Amino acid sequence: MLARRAIKIVAGKITLKAPARALLGASIPIEWSGPNNPNDYITIVPKGAPDGTSGHLPGTAAGSPANVDPPDQPGPCEVRYINGQDDRVLARIPLEIVGAGA
């Protein structure tokens, strides 16, 4: 070994921004920042859905905001930023999907 240098590895900062409520059936613009690794994506799933569950999957390569389709049923949901290499949830925020009459 000719040289050695200490490095510090830190987790990437990820942010998600979405409205608190959105209409059923309408695409939702999700602002995000994050690592943007190959195959990373944003999804909206019902609250309590197991990690690894995904809905409409716009990749992060297209930039922010990502237009994401919500689940087909109203109710509490989560917006998730997913690592495309191992499908780990890296960030999540709540979102309420409401019917048109709400």
Features:
102 residues, mainly beta, Immunoglobulin-like, 4-stranded mixed β-sheet, elongated
Write up this protein.
By secondary structure, the protein is mainly beta. The chain has a single domain, classed as Immunoglobulins (Immunoglobulin-like). A hairpin with a 6-residue loop joins strand 6 and strand 7. It is elongated, with a radius of gyration of 16 Å. The model has no long low-confidence stretch (mean pLDDT 90).
Indicate the topology.
Elements: E1 15-17, E2 21-23, E3 28-33, E4 41-46, E5 66-68, E6 75-82, E7 89-98
Parallel strand pairs: 2-7
Antiparallel strand pairs: 1-3, 3-5, 4-6, 6-7
Ends apart, CA distance between termini? 67 Å
Mean pLDDT: 90
**Which secondary-structure class do the elements indicate?**
mainly beta
**What oligomeric state do the depicted chains represent?**
single chain
CATH architecture: Sandwich
CATH-derived topology: Immunoglobulin-like
Measured by DSSP, the beta-strand proportion falls in 35-45%
Main sheet: which strands, in order across?
2-7-6-4
Task: Describe, in short, the structure shown.
By secondary structure, this protein is mainly β.
